[in-house]
Write a structure and sequence with these properties.
Layout: H1 3-8, E1 14-17, H2 23-30, E2 36-39, H3 43-50, E3 69-72, H4 75-78, E4 83-86, H5 101-113, E5 119-122, H6 130-143, E6 152-155, E7 174-178, H7 181-192, E8 199-201, H8 205-235, H9 240-247, H10 269-279, H11 285-312, E9 320-324, H12 340-348, E10 353-357, H13 363-370, E11 382-387, H14 399-405, E12 406-414, E13 427-429
Parallel strand pairs: 1-2, 1-4, 2-3, 4-5, 5-6, 7-8, 9-10, 9-11, 11-12, 12-13
Antiparallel strand pairs: 6-7
Helix pairs in contact: 5-6, 8-10, 8-11, 11-12
Length: about 425
């Protein structure tokens, strides 16, 4: 029996569990070709999606039209599916320990709905071994069914990039894996329905899990190197972006730049690998060092601004800083693991008032998540301005604008070097 053929014939449905930044785009793409049940435990989000509204603001209303999809929070409805895709978040806790509660909760849900002949594919980013060693036992215990004998297990790591309209589910090669040769081919054929770039068949579920972790760990290491270079060059009064521009003229130079590393991938995934390594008795020194550097960049930025304010503000007791951008990257509303928040908290710890502004972030979400109130009205007496995120909205800002909102001795901290060479009437600094 072929689950792929049953889906094409309308005899089977795909059930996507978790309809956030990853799950919803996947569900809607599959719904162009086959029947889909979109499942989420958040009833408020379900109601929004039924009205063609993406709570994450990544998918337009038009993309809901003419899709064979039903949104639900009902386990009874989810039981109608035969090919389950798990796309729930996998964060870390305040101690940077992997938080498996969402993925284990999804495993419990699967255990209540999976049937003989069904397929279960995890997309959530986890450490190698998690799918088979942590999630599978939960499914088997609750369902009473056995992997391979009764149902098939697979893993296909998500590669969704919030805000990126070029590198999408369809245009990026998809890694797939299965518990045996048959499941690998069936899972591959199902994903080939929606991935124009094709699929890569990994040799095992662990290999597929490891590949995802390596993708983001590699970027984390490279950015950490740039951040460390930035701190060194700052002591030499050399502009890092000038250095990178010059070095980038070599044909094999890897073009990374310094910056704050937040979000749900690069700033989180390496901790899953170091956690697993530690459990195996290995101290991942290079990866841990990179995490330390990147996690502390926000405080380094704060200290630079604080030192300037204390040295140059006419009235330190009433000093004020403006932070432009609180999302974790440009042109998205996603505030998960936003590192600029650490900068804000550090500056506030020195009794310096901080205003935060962002055209993409939701005021209520920022208030709820970080206890910060977004300002909609900028002042004209800031002692420093931190342009943290290079939103498109900020690209046209000029020296006249920055002069209008700051005092003469103010600092413009342009973290990504967007205004390099364009600020002359105020002190200027970039990473």
């Amino acid at each position: 029996m072929s689950i792929y053929q049953d889906l094409l014939d309308g005899k089977a449905k795909i059930g996507v569990i978790g309809l956030g930044y990853v799950g919803l785009p996947i569900a809607l793409e599959f719904a162009k070709k086959v029947p889909v049940i979109g499942f989420d435990i958040n009833d408020k989000r379900i109601e929004m999606m039924r009205k063609h509204i993406d709570p994450s603001k990544e998918v337009s209303a038009e993309e809901f039209i003419d899709r064979d999809i039903e949104f639900t929070s009902s386990l009874e409805k989810l039981k109608e599916a035969s090919f389950f895709v798990v796309a729930v978040p996998t964060p870390v806790d305040k101690f940077n320990i992997p938080d498996l509660k969402p993925v284990l909760g999804a495993s419990k849900t699967i255990g209540q709905v999976v049937k003989k002949g069904d397929y279960v594919v995890f997309e959530s980013t986890v450490y190698p071994g998690c799918t088979e060693e942590d999630c599978l036992p939960v499914i088997e215990q609750i369902s009473g069914l056995k992997n391979i004998t009764d149902f098939k297990l697979g893993y296909s790591p998500e590669r969704i990039n919030p805000g990126d309209k070029k590198n999408t589910l369809r245009t990026v090669v998809k890694i797939v894996s299965g518990c045996d040769a048959e499941s690998l081919e069936e899972i591959a054929k199902v994903y080939e329905l929606v991935v124009d770039a094709g699929v890569h068949r990994a040799s095992s579920i662990k290999v597929a899990e490891a590949a995802k972790i390596v993708e983001n760990t590699q970027r984390d290491l490279n950015i950490a190197l740039m951040n460390e270079l930035s701190m060194i060059f700052d002591r030499m009064n050399i502009n890092t972006f000038d250095v990178l521009e010059a070095a980038g003229t070599k044909w094999n130079f890897l073009k990374f730049s310094p910056g704050l590393v937040g979000g749900h991938c690069i700033g989180v995934d390496p901790y899953y690998l170091t956690h697993k390594a530690e459990a195996l008795g290995y101290d991942a020194k290079v990866i841990s060092a990179s995490r330390f550097i990147n996690d502390n960049m926000a405080k380094n930025v704060a200290r630079k601004v604080i030192m300037h304010v204390f040295r140059n503000a006419p009235d330190v007791n009433n000093a004020r800083v403006l932070v432009k951008g609180v999302t974790f990257k440009e042109n998205v509303s996603d505030i998960r693991n936003s590192k600029i928040v650490d900068t804000v908290k550090e500056i506030q710890a020195f009794n310096i008032k901080v205003d935060v502004e962002d055209p993409f972030a939701e005021m209520d979400e920022v208030e709820h998540e970080y206890g910060l109130h977004l300002t909609r009205h900028e002042r004209n007496d800031y002692d420093a301005v931190i342009v943290a995120i290079p939103h498109t909205n900020y690209s046209g800002l000029d020296e006249k604008y920055f002069s209008s909102i700051t005092k003469p001795g103010a600092l413009i901290a342009d973290l990504k070097g967007v205004y390099k060479g364009r600020i002359h009437q105020r002190a200027y600094w970039s990473l």
